[in-house]
Write a structure and sequence with these properties.
Blueprint (H helix, E strand, L loop, with lengths): L1 E6 L4 H13 L5 E9 L6 H5 L7 H23 L5 E9 L2 H11 L4 E5 L13 H9 L4 E4 L10 E7 L10 H10 L2 E8 L12 H7 L5 E7 L3 H11 L4 E6 L2 H8 L15 E5 L1
Parallel strand pairs: 1-2, 1-4, 2-3, 4-5, 6-7, 6-9, 7-8, 9-10
Antiparallel strand pairs: 5-10
Length: 278
């Protein structure tokens, strides 16, 4: 059984990520742990003072969260009756990433699925601070779903590699599992942001070819183009349904999320992003 963590703030964006997960894991045995995290700063002192004398502050803060989670779980159970899914409600009163880390450890989580929790427009999806902090600080694969993105199957997956990276099979299971589950094609893209070194050939091409020998895959490289622009263009041109990457140096992470230098363009991802950690 897979254990999937679904953080929610009860927004439309968070619910959309949950709906994506329900479709993505079809025909699998899954336990979904739906987590809401509350912070003390979200509450006025008057609200806490109004609580009954025998009620702890923690109970006062999380009661509303528990009620909303109960309603959400009831809706999901009524909507999804034909899958081997179980649902569990989790609520916490803590720093967001600390609560995520605790849930990952205590529930043996295999994958976190969450929304971008940022602003969107027709041209951009901006990652919010919660999503970025989970990617940076939590040692667990994360599948990030852009706002409003609807699951329509997976035919082509992009695997993005930084020019300094060397291919490793460690912790690559989420990508491999997805490729096999959907019999998807793989596009392997290596990016070099300047042309000081030519990357016409992959250093690890033979290793990659051997490892993905049972999967339809092709190799691509882009030089002298900012990372977010290169990925955004490739996703559109190649009709990609998901982008996967490893994050093991913050420099690559920052290049991916900083956007171009052009004002008013902040790039996050147009398609679901699978982040794995080394």
């Amino acid at each position: 059984m897979k254990n999937i963590l679904l953080p929610t703030d009860f927004s439309e964006n968070a619910r959309n990520a949950i709906d994506y997960a329900m479709e993505f894991f079809k025909n699998e045995l899954c336990a979904f742990h739906i987590l809401n995290v509350q912070k003390a700063s979200n509450y006025m002192m008057d609200d806490l003072m109004a609580a009954p004398a025998n009620t702890s502050i923690h109970q006062s803060v999380v009661q509303g969260s528990k009620e909303k989670l109960s309603t959400l779980l009831k809706e999901l159970k009524e909507e999804i009756t034909h899958e081997n899914y179980t649902f569990h409600a989790l609520t916490d009163y803590d720093i967001f990433t600390d609560a995520i880390q605790q849930a990952v450890k205590s529930k043996n989580i295999d994958l976190i699925v969450m929304g971008t929790n940022g602003a969107t427009s027709a041209r951009e999806v901006v990652f919010g601070s919660n999503t970025l902090n989970v990617i940076r600080k939590v040692d667990c694969p994360v599948l990030v779903i852009p706002k409003g993105y609807v699951f329509e199957g997976l035919k082509t997956i992009l695997y993005t590699i930084d020019y300094n990276d060397h291919f490793t099979t460690e912790n690559i299971e989420p990508l491999v599992d997805t490729l096999h589950k959907y019999k998807a094609s793989l596009r392997i893209l290596k990016i070099k942001e300047d042309d000081t070194v030519t990357i016409a050939e992959f250093d690890d091409k033979k290793h990659l070819k051997d490892f993905f020998k049972d999967i339809n895959h092709t190799f691509h490289s882009i030089t002298n183009v900012p990372t977010p622009v290169a990925i955004d263009s490739f996703v559109q041109i190649m009709d990609v349904d998901m982008n996967a990457m490893f994050i093991h140096r913050e420099t690559f992470l920052e290049r991916f999320f900083r956007g171009s230098e052009t004002p008013k363009i902040s790039y996050g991802t147009r398609v679901p992003l699978l982040v794995m950690h080394n």
